[in-house]
Amino acid sequence: MSSVTVRVPAKVNVQLSVGPLRDDGYHDLVNVFHAVSIFDEVVAKESESITVQVNGKWSDQVPTDDSNLAIRAARALAKHAGRSYGADLIIQKGIPVAGGMAGGSADAAGALVACNELWGLGLPFEDLMEIAGDLGSDVPFSLLGGTAVGTGRGEQLTELPTGGVFHWVFALANGGLSTASVYAECDRLREASKAEVPWPQLNDSLMEALGTGDAYALGSHLSNDLQTATLNLRPELAPTLDSGRQHGALGAIVSGSGPTCAFLAIDATHARDLAHSLTTTGAAHTAVAAHGPVQGATLI
Ligand code: C5P
């Protein structure tokens, strides 16, 4: 095989509950991931060494040196296989960069699936999941897709059944946010308030809403413990969230660490109308309609 293409979805967190800061600098989470139909494509081509090229709207914001997560994923896979392999990775970005939608994790997951195929390794999914967890907290979910609850750092996943399709609008912001800086701001705010940080718990009502496919109930139970920190760093997002609510969104939250804002719509038509309203009123410069759940990293 000389070339392989993999499609990988973005995610939104329908519940993101953040526990106390751990000794290793991470936080224990209850993180309900939901994969949505905004995609990156990763092409892997035969080559002597491992290289990456990034194309698309936000490509200039993605590093192409050794810190690139897709390169790190390909290297980790070659190491796991015990040989030195090469691949030219060509990434087409559809997922906002540093937007709180796991774009970097998607590229890592895509590189794992693509190189596993290109190099004919035939490694089972469980092995890829293990390598993924070492690369980043969200990478296993980018492989898995669907809807799942992540515990630990977010990398220990249990799939959740969903009873239908949910329709979303994502308002893209100018410029990204570093995940680490948002967690740091969350810690700072918590320290300043001296409030006890409870152990994160899965919201049963949210689970039920996902299971029955009830968008109204899901909308009322969306939650994100990072949102206050994100809004502190980017106050201009608060009116964007308000505007979505005024235009009938069933729920409006910051996606993960942000700055992308996520709005749950009633159906596909409402999602289109909501996206239109957000852009024409100037509440967002770009708004994209999408649906979920969709499958994780997939060979195409
Ligand atoms: O795992 P990943 O490299 O994606 O995490 C990026 C940063 O987000 C970490 O360095 C850490 O600051 C923060 N993080 C955290 N707790 C988690 C996941 C991420 O504090 N469970």
UniProtKB/TrEMBL annotation:
A Pfam family recorded for this sequence: GHMP_kinases_N
Sequence ranges assigned to domain GHMP kinase C-terminal in this UniProt record: 206-282
Binding site for ATP: P96, V97, A98, G99, G100, M101, A102, G103, G104, S105, A106
Keywords: ATP-binding, Isoprene biosynthesis, Kinase, Nucleotide-binding, Transferase
Highest taxon above the source species: Bacteria
Entry annotation: catalytic residues: K11, D138
Listed EC numbers: 2.7.1.148
Single GO MF annotation: 4-(cytidine 5'-diphospho)-2-C-methyl-D-erythritol kinase activity
Catalytic activity: 4-CDP-2-C-methyl-D-erythritol + ATP = 4-CDP-2-C-methyl-D-erythritol 2-phosphate + ADP + H(+)
Ranges where the GHMP kinase N-terminal domain occurs: 68-146
Broad EC category: transferase
GO terms classed as biological process: isopentenyl diphosphate biosynthetic process, methylerythritol 4-phosphate pathway; terpenoid biosynthetic process
Pathway involvement of the protein, from the record: Isoprenoid biosynthesis; isopentenyl diphosphate biosynthesis via DXP pathway; isopentenyl diphosphate from 1-deoxy-D-xylulose 5-phosphate: step 3/6
UniProt record similarity statement: Belongs to the GHMP kinase family. IspE subfamily.
PANTHER family: 4-DIPHOSPHOCYTIDYL-2-C-METHYL-D-ERYTHRITOL KINASE, CHLOROPLASTIC
Purpose of the protein: Catalyzes the phosphorylation of the position 2 hydroxy group of 4-diphosphocytidyl-2C-methyl-D-erythritol.
HAMAP family for this protein: IspE
Protein name: 4-diphosphocytidyl-2-C-methyl-D-erythritol kinase
